[in-house]
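[recover] target loaded
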């Protein structure tokens, strides 16, 4: 994990300050980002949006690659499925990774397809020994194919399986330990699921081995009458900022991405959220230095 962090911060430290925060790259912001080139540590894209053989998406990505480290965040590998992995999908991912050599490659702790049918959603797993073994095998296969470590992100959820016998946080941490993958710790997803299912989000962070965590995600959510919904359509909630501060104190600084997918705001709003994340980490470093 340390080498990943050094790669990101060194590549983005154009003004001599440590930079570790980035944003999700969306077409609305393409031209403005290239014109202004704000000092971001990385840009994150959904891998599947660039699976084509050519065209403007890949041309744009080549331009951004010249100025920023890239993070490829997949949503379609369905690593938790009971089915075999989709070989064609994985080969398209490998071709993309080989071409662009991103700093980070990530997927989700979920399943999203079965029997050749895609749910167009990230669906929770039953947290059982059988599901864990299946997930480890699929992560191993993908890492072997790509020839590199991947990161696995915890998802937000609204239902859980009665058959689950392993807490989600223990499942994720054991997956990282036994497969060698890293953890993309999404603090918004932890908060959303904690409210929906009634567990302690800080205990979730406590349960993850710091050495396993290679990246953070922060995002916003919406409120429904009886639950929270992970929409990525708002600023980061104050409760999630508090959880991020706790993660910084326990785990430390990691590359971080502000996710925003619906109700997409002006670029300066995303940059403001990224700056807040960095300022909070720098302030905590100063507090810890004074305490030492």
């Amino acid at each position: 994990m340390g080498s990943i962090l050094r790669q990101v911060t060194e590549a983005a430290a154009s003004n001599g300050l440590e930079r570790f925060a980035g944003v999700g790259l969306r077409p609305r912001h393409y031209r403005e980002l290239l014109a202004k080139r704000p000092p971001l540590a990385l840009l994150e894209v959904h891998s599947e949006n660039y699976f084509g053989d050519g065209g403007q998406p890949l041309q744009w990505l080549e331009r951004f690659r010249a100025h920023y480290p890239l993070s490829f965040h997949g949503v379609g590998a369905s690593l938790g499925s009971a089915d075999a992995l989709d070989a064609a999908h994985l080969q398209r991912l490998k071709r993309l990774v080989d071409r662009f050599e991103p700093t980070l490659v990530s997927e989700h702790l979920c399943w999203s397809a079965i029997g050749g049918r895609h749910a167009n959603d990230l669906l929770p797993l039953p947290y059982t020994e059988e599901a864990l073994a299946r997930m480890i095998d699929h992560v191993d296969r993908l890492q072997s194919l790509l020839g590199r470590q991947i990161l696995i992100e915890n998802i937000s959820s609204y239902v859980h399986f009665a058959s689950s016998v392993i807490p989600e946080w223990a499942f994720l941490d054991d997956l990282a330990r036994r497969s060698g993958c890293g953890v993309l710790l999404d603090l918004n997803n932890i908060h959303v699921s904690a409210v929906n299912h009634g567990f302690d989000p800080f205990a979730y962070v406590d349960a993850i081995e710091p050495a396993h965590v290679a990246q953070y995600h922060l995002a916003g959510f919406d409120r429904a009458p009886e639950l929270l919904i992970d929409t990525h359509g708002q600023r980061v909630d104050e409760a999630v900022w508090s959880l991020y501060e706790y993660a910084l104190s326990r785990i430390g600084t990691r590359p971080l991405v502000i996710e925003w997918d619906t109700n997409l705001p002006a670029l300066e709003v995303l940059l403001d959220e990224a700056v807040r994340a960095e300022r909070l980490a720098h302030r905590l470093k100063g507090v810890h230095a004074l305490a030492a």
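[recover] notes: The first strand starts at residue 21 and ends at 24.
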